[in-house]
UniProtKB/TrEMBL annotation:
Pfam families: IDEAL. Residues 19-55 form the IDEAL domain. This is IDEAL domain-containing protein. InterPro entries: IDEAL_dom, Virus_scaffolding_prot_C. Gene3D superfamilies: Virus Scaffolding Protein, Chain A (4.10.810.10). It comes from the Bacteria. It comes from Paenibacillus kyungheensis.
Length: 79
């Protein structure tokens, strides 16, 4: 029983770490979008290249976890 509790806690910790990493990554991506817009407005090509490269790297690492939704068709009962 103790071993199962420890395993559960480890798995829970890993899941929390994965969520935290995803939140940090998404936050940085939002920052990068704003900084890229600013670099474009200022016509700063070096900053634009550097920021878009970082954004590409982060975007390739992002895993989108979308819930699977099953569509169920309901038929009305007519009497």
């Amino acid at each position: 029983m103790y071993k199962m509790k420890v395993t559960y806690e480890v798995m829970l910790g890993l899941a929390a770490e994965m969520v935290w990493d995803q939140v940090l990554r998404e936050h940085r991506m939002n920052e990068l979008h704003l900084l890229i817009d600013q670099a474009l407005a200022e016509r700063d090509e070096d900053a634009f290249q550097r920021l878009t490269n970082e954004l590409r790297t982060l975007a390739s690492a992002v895993v989108v976890l979308e819930p699977v939704v099953e569509i169920v068709e309901r038929k009305s009962l007519s009497f």
